[in-house]
Design brief:
With 312 residues, this protein is of the alpha/beta class. It has two domains: 4-173 and 215-241 and 278-293, Rossmann fold; 188-211 and 245-277 and 301-311, UDP-galactose 4-epimerase, domain 1 (Alpha-Beta Complex), CATH 3.90.25. It has ten helices and 13 strands. The strands form four sheets. It has a seven-stranded parallel beta sheet, sandwiched between helices. A two-stranded parallel ribbon has the order 7-10. Helix 1 links the parallel strand 1 (4-8) and strand 2 (28-33). The protein is globular.
């Protein structure tokens, strides 16, 4: 019998890569997306191979239809911007907490066996301990981070009270093809590449000494597939990262090289910006067999080439 999955947010940057990988591995896939941040362009190459539902994860009627005969849910749909969550925390909580509660409730009713939840390294906050492990203290600094921490707790309770198996994946700074570079709240790599191509300069917020653990999107999709087959423990949390700490200054220099040395300029930093972030991938390696395979140099070139193709 073919595995049937629902990918919420499946038209988004990460979700579309998960959908594509599932299809290549013989899964039957439904996608639920309200297209608030996702795009039909992300799934155009395999649109005819999926069932697409346009709607909100907070809509119980749509969820009842979307979860019919589904055994595995990849819950990627979310209010995704940290800075924007500061401006509209109520909407962030409603989508990320309220939506997760409704998915868990209806998934149980429909007989779903597995939920893979997209969480975030933002739950750790500005932790001085590097690299961060899954057992380290949580210190969320934004409504977005609090909402992800709450989503983890909701699903832990569900896993304890039902037979639904849950894997929480804490993503660390995902980048790659299909990432949206537009808008004030774009992720740093997509913003740097887009600005270097269009504005001919790269703008760093703060000193540039902040560090991040950048993880290529195809590695993240593979981690989701591995987690879908992990049933040894009823509830488990995994860092999905490269375990390589890269400064924003170094990142900007690498992107600048790809565009023949565009100018790098500095502006004031963001409120509550985390200064250092790097995860330990050991647990995911040991239990899932996950290996981050795309190094930052290769990943930047692949992302840069994709952005250039989209511009043409």
């Amino acid at each position: 019998m073919t595995n049937k999955a629902l990918v919420t947010g499946g038209c988004g940057f990460i979700g579309s890569h998960i959908v594509e990988l599932l299809l290549k591995n013989g899964w039957s896939v439904s996608v639920l997306d309200n297209l608030s941040s996702g795009s039909l362009k992300n799934i155009k190459d395999f649109r005819s191979d999926i069932e697409l539902l346009i709607g909100d994860v907070r809509d119980e009627e749509i969820l009842n239809n979307a979860l019919k005969d589904v055994k595995t849910v990849f819950h990627q749909a979310a209010f995704i911007s940290v800075p924007k969550s500061e401006l509209d925390p109520a909407e962030c909580y409603d989508v990320n907490i309220g939506g997760t509660i409704k998915i868990a409730k209806i998934a149980y009713k429909k007989g779903v066996e597995k939920i893979i939840f997209a969480s975030s390294c933002a739950v750790y906050g500005d932790n001085k301990k590097i690299p961060l492990s899954e057992n380290d203290a949580l210190n969320p600094l934004s409504p977005y981070a609090y909402s992800k921490m709450a989503g983890e707790a909701i699903l832990k309770e569900i896993s304890q009270k039902t037979k639904i198996n849950v894997s929480v994946l804490r993503y660390f700074n995902i980048y790659g093809p299909r990432q949206n570079p537009n808008g004030r709240y774009a992720a740093v790599i997509s913003k740097f590449i887009n600005d270097s191509l269009k504005r001919k300069k790269i703008t760093i917020e703060g000193s540039g000494e902040q560090t991040r653990d950048f993880t290529f999107v195809k590695d993240v999709a593979n981690a989701n597939l591995l987690a879908a087959n992990f049933f040894q423990r009823n509830y488990e949390i995994f860092n999905i990262c490269s375990s390589i700490e890269t400064s924003i200054n170094c990142l900007a220099k690498e992107v600048s090289k790809l565009t023949n040395g565009v100018e790098i300029v500095y502006v004031n930093g963001r409120k509550n910006d985390i200064q250092r972030s790097c995860g330990s991938v050991k647990k995911a390696q040991d239990l899932l067999g996950f290996e981050p395979s795309v190094k930052i140099g290769e990943g930047l070139k692949l992302t840069f080439n994709n952005f250039k193709e989209r511009e043409e």
